[in-house]
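Inputs:
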Amino acid sequence: MTYFADVAALARKDILLELRSRDTLPAMLLFVVSALVVFHFSLPSDASAAASTGLLWIALLFTALLGLGRAFAAEREQRVLDGLVLAPCDRSAIWLAKCLGVLVFLGVAEAVALPAYALFFEPVGWELVAAVVLADLGLAAVGTLLAAMAAASRARELLLPLLFLPLVIPVVVGGVGATVVDDPARYLGFLALYDLIFAILSWASFEYVVAE
Amino acid sequence: MSLRNNRAVVLAAAASVLLVAGLALALFWAPEDADQGFSQRIFYVHVPIALTAYACFGWGAWKALRLLWTREPRYDLESYTAVHMGVIFGILTLVTGSIWAKISWGVWWTWSERQLTLFLVLFLFYCAYFMLRFSVEPGPRRANLSAVYALFGVALIPVSFLAIRLAENFIHPVVFTRDGPQMSGSMFVVFCVCLAAMLGLFASLYTNELAGKRLDARLRELREALE
């Protein structure tokens, strides 16, 4: 059980840090709402509901990217990661905790984004909410690992989107598919499959990303 | 050293013989396709190149797995070389696929061709592999990061393929329905020769490139030792 205690302590640290410094979350909220407003002006007035759904997914993706870019900022600037790696806990606990933190931030951002989307564009159905929840799991899992990779490189902010976008194309397919077709079960199932595969892979390989 | 040189020479010779034979068979011996005519013969180049690209990525991921497993540094260079070759074969797949699309459908690019779309995704993914590699200091850290990323690649291939199939249902109706290649016996023989030729080409390029990269690394080590 110490594994989960470690995870809880690390996740608590991330959330406390954010509550005190308010570095990332306000930026994510402001970004997602601004993006939706920009999308309103970039869509022709006779655009279909499906087009606005696609844009919502782009907004969510880039909001996640914004949060992920900051995910390892404190660790890098204060050299916390070296300490964490030396700590007598399983390295994958660091990944899981970071993932939970990212998930909380994403959840809060979407708690604002989805009502804003409903207000500006189309009503939000249950399948969109389900797809967003499932997509968040995959985005957080893959994104945390890639953010750790990017943090180790010289090009950091530049590198993360390049690593992240090709890997999350399937998430976009699943998310958009679940919201525009009549029978969303297949797409939701696909998102769950993606989450499973990449969560296991990220969990297992995180150790190699942070340790030498 | 001479043994290794010999192997490189034998591989190169086998690859060239097979390539010439495969091309000659594809151009002159294989029966004309009833539906597409002469242009269908690009199939004997395009599909083997695509399969070879998958083999490269798979080989790179296997070496990456070995690196993480054994922590033997030589696997890093082997994995990198295989991915490097994979990207080259991937670009060739995109180019030949694009030519084929232009000839049979009149457009250079079509999203309804799953393999092409998949190769575009993979191309973007593995280009980011190079970006990652070149922005991390050489050393065990870089080897680990590259290996993990290469492993993600082989997981991404089937997942993306599934995603592209699923996306066809809502992005657009299937315009071009193409039955799977119903190959006659002689077509299949030519195809196999071409596939063997491409795999041989990969093996030959891989051996040479790896030898070159090893020499490069060795030279750098010696230079650093001198300074």
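Residues 2-210 of chain A form one domain. Flag for discussion at group meeting.
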